[in-house]
Amino acid sequence: MFSSNLFAIATSLLLATLPSFSLAQTSDPCAIVAGKPIATFAEAKACLEYFPYNHTIATETIDIVRKITDDLYIFNEIAATPPKVEGLSIVPVNISKALDIIQKEPWKSDRAFQDAIALILDKVHDAHLVYSPHCYRQFIFWQPIQLNSLIRDGRQIVNVAYVKDDLWADAKKEWTDCEVTHIDDVNAMEMVVNYAVNNNGESKDVNTCLNNIMNSKDYFHGWDDGADDLGYHRFLPAQESHKYTLQCPKNGTKPEQADYDEPITVTIPWVAQIPTGFSDADTYWDSFCSVHTSALSKRGPLFEPTVQENHIGQAFDFSENSIGHTTRDYTEFLILDGEDSDVGLIDIQSFSVASEDKEAFVKNFTRGLQMFAEKNVKKIIFDFSGNGGGDACAGEFFINSFFSSTPDYYSDVKYSSLVDNMVQKAFDMKSTKWMDYKSNHTQDADWYTNPVTYKRGNTDVKFSQPVSLSCESWNSAFAGNNAFNTSRWNADDLLILSDGRCGSTCAIVVSRLRLIHNVPALGLGGIRGNRMQFASFPGGESERLSSFLMDLQSLDLLDDPKAPKPFPERADMGWTFREVYRPNLPDTKFGDEVNLLEYNNVAADCRMYYTDENASDPKKLLHEVAALVKSGQCPLVQNGGK
Ligand SMILES: *[C@@H]1O[C@H](CO)[C@@H](O)[C@H](O)[C@H]1NC(C)=O
Ligand SMILES: *[C@@H]1O[C@H](CO)[C@@H](O)[C@H](O)[C@H]1NC(C)=O
Ligand SMILES: *[C@@H]1O[C@H](CO)[C@@H](O)[C@H](O)[C@H]1NC(C)=O
Ligand SMILES: *[C@@H]1O[C@H](CO)[C@@H](O)[C@H](O)[C@H]1NC(C)=O
Ligand SMILES: *[C@@H]1O[C@H](CO)[C@@H](O)[C@H](O)[C@H]1NC(C)=O
Ligand SMILES: *[C@@H]1O[C@H](CO)[C@@H](O)[C@H](O)[C@H]1NC(C)=O
Ligand SMILES: *[C@@H]1O[C@H](CO)[C@@H](O)[C@H](O)[C@H]1NC(C)=O
């Protein structure tokens, strides 16, 4: 009796558990992709969408984002009712209202919710304003073909730059250099421009967004967040595949001969590269999503910045005649060869100079200039393409190396009672960056604690007094290294070269070089016939929640009721807190929103586009730029460029 009962229970257990056991296996889609190098779109999606929407997490997340944008994001109000600026694509975004809408939506998954937050901040087109859900940025999605845009046969076209044939067996190398006439049955140029406007948060200038989403593999250096390129996503793509119509040069002919095969249409899937470090949904969540908090581990993963800038590859390998080529790739001094051996190139990939590198950076910079002088360099190209900014004082150092006196630039910080407490504490405790700002008219914390009110859109908003940054530590490094006398080069011996992807500190540096010192600027790529900016997101300074929390912690203000909390899931957020005005403004214009650099179009003086001959040959491209600077073909254009 007893034993047969047990048997019955055992059988029913077995019957009950068997199906649900196999169900449990197939219902853990993360276990299916774990350990594989690549997976299909559907497999990757199933894992990313496995984690259910959690109302508690969503509400907490939204509260934090709202607090930061309301209190700390300097362009929050102007973004809701922005000015119309000719040549820029600025859509009004009322972030708070958008968050209300997101909060009411019944999201299918946590991923969908998290990506909605990221997307709404992207719409402001300020690359400093970002929400990065770490949990859903682990998979890398590739299109096996990568596109660029160039001028062929007098037309601007979308072109297959290269084929990534290590991801998808049906990819064919010979698609390289085929023109893409249509994507998903829409004219390819039109589709790509629409994508640049609507899906890329990089810049308010569509030319820059286009350069950012296209693959310029051979002219690719410096910084790229890579998250939202056309053929390379860090987030789940909107559809499983794309249809491309290709017009390919006949075998044995070059594209520029315009002798084509019949067009073909191919459907190309997204392929996911799978991260390591998990074996199923639980371990995925543990490794990438959950915040391991305890009172003691506050300084652990919680406060670590989770988003790293990508530094991929060195595009220019001129080997000889090169100085300062470092693994950190801040700056490189090169001299062109052949007829152009009197033209130097300073490739400035980043101003994010680590403090332990400052001295070597200054030394190398001076050495580079000396080398230019010894080799009789007459013209210098400053290549700022792909420079995502960094230390404002490194930028100041750069300008000071060429021009002896440059007026300070006007900037101010958004006022909030939380930061008021921070600034006061910073001066009491002699700690954090909040001590580093100086104002003409005030002392100590007064620059912040006596705010002024300006109109932004329809709203009155409080800001600090006008400030500039104190660069004393840089200036002393500069003085100690016998600054090189650069008076042999005048503004018209210099040229700013930029694909528009010169942001933050870089944008401020080039704007001042152009507007104060009259160094002409060449815009590279973009959409033909469109005026193009040579800089983007010139917000003066940005912050990340992870480092903001560290400042709060060192000022003993983590428990201030106004302080934002860390995100409930592993995520980080960045925002602009200092805004910059156009250089050379009279005092009276200060505070007026029409003078904000972020909402101005400072256009390049001349343009160059990629062609079949030079799109994949940076050396050739630079010789063409050199020819242009030597023949004076990029003169300053007053009141707007090309
Ligand atoms: C939602 O997340 C919170 C916080 O992590 C957790 O306590 C709660 O159990 C979750 N709710 C559901 C329904 O999973
Ligand atoms: C954003 O929209 C809300 C209504 O949802 C409104 O109260 C608020 O004033 C708007 N913000 C700005 C800066 O215009
Ligand atoms: C192109 O032509 C070459 C010989 O001229 C041949 O070897 C190659 O297989 C051809 N490629 C294709 C895709 O037909
Ligand atoms: C300076 O140049 C040297 C020699 O080229 C290089 O090894 C070093 O990394 C450079 N340092 C910096 C900070 O650029
Ligand atoms: C600070 O004072 C200097 C010299 O008096 C002046 O040129 C500059 O415009 C002032 N800056 C601000 C932000 O008021
Ligand atoms: C730099 O050199 C020029 C010309 O040789 C000279 O006039 C100028 O005074 C020098 N500047 C400095 C700061 O030494
Ligand atoms: C590429 O070459 C064409 C001529 O072949 C030239 O017109 C164009 O300006 C060049 N573009 C760049 C970026 O050098």
Features:
about 650 residues, alpha+beta, Pdz3 Domain, 2-enoyl-CoA Hydratase, Chain A, domain 1, 7-stranded mixed β-sheet, 6-stranded antiparallel β-sheet, disordered N terminus, binds 2-acetamido-2-deoxy-beta-D-glucopyranose, S41A_metabolite_peptidase, ClpP/crotonase-like_dom_sf, signal
Put the structure in a nutshell:
It comes from Umbelopsis ramanniana AG. This protein has 642 residues and is of the alpha+beta class. The chain is built from 18 helices and 28 strands.
Describe the structure.
InterPro entries: ClpP/crotonase-like_dom_sf, S41A_metabolite_peptidase. It comes from Umbelopsis ramanniana AG. Residues 1-24 form the signal peptide. Mean pLDDT is 87; it is low at 1-24 and 294-328. Among the domains are: 14-136 and 278-303, no CATH class; 141-273, Pdz3 Domain; 331-404 and 485-538 and 611-631, 2-enoyl-CoA Hydratase, Chain A, domain 1 (Alpha-Beta Complex), CATH 3.90.226. The chain is of the alpha+beta class and 642 residues long. The strands form seven sheets. Strands 15-16-17-18-24-25-28 form a seven-stranded mixed β-sheet, with helices on both faces. Strands 4, 5, 6, 7, 11 and 12 form a six-stranded antiparallel β-sheet that branches. A five-stranded antiparallel β-sheet has the order 1-13-3-10-9. It is globular. 31% of the residues lie in helices and 19% in strands. The protein binds 2-acetamido-2-deoxy-beta-D-glucopyranose (7 copies). One 2-acetamido-2-deoxy-beta-D-glucopyranose (NAG) binds at residues 407-408, 410, 440, 466. One 2-acetamido-2-deoxy-beta-D-glucopyranose is lined by residues 485, 487.
